[in-house]
Amino acid sequence: MRKLLVITAMAGLGMALSPTQGLALVNLTTQTATATSTTGSSGDWSATATCPSGYSVTGGGWSVPAISGDPPVQVWNSEPSGNGWYANGHLSMSNPSGYTYTVYAICGAVI
Question: Would you list the domain boundaries of the chain?
């Protein structure tokens, strides 16, 4: 678990602020959720990584394993889904079974 300190300035145009005026400090903690999918004989894969309770999805993505011969990997969707991240696609090769893909959700919570 990582902690970030986010500083936001709330100044109007043309205003001069002292170093402490107009600043809001927010303590944000992040966590990465993962889900895996293993290709079947069709080569299709899909998975959704879901953020834990108290966290909201802030981003996400997917990773593909190293595959000999570097076959084409199609990613049809990689997008937010509910309180997580969804990705799906297809591995185009003669025997696509047994490759594991990982989908990641980056989750944040203000604490």
Answer: 31-110
Residue with tokens 């084409």: 72
DSSP secondary structure of 85-107: EEEEEEE-SSS-TT-EEEEEEEE
Sheet containing 56-63: give its strands across. Answer: 2-9, 23-38, 100-110, 56-63
Q: What is the pLDDT of residues 75-111, one digit of tens each?
A: 899 999 999 999 998 888 777 888 888 899 999 887 7
Contact 106, 4 (CB under 8 A): no
37, 47 contact by CB (below 8 A):
yes
Pairing between β-strand 44-50 and β-strand 2-9 as defined by DSSP bridges: unpaired
**Residues in a beta bridge with 9:** 23
Number of Cβ within a 10 Å radius of residue 107: 25
For position 32, what pLDDT does the model report?
84
The one-letter code for the residue type at 89 is G
Give the C-alpha separation, 4 to 26, whole Å: 9
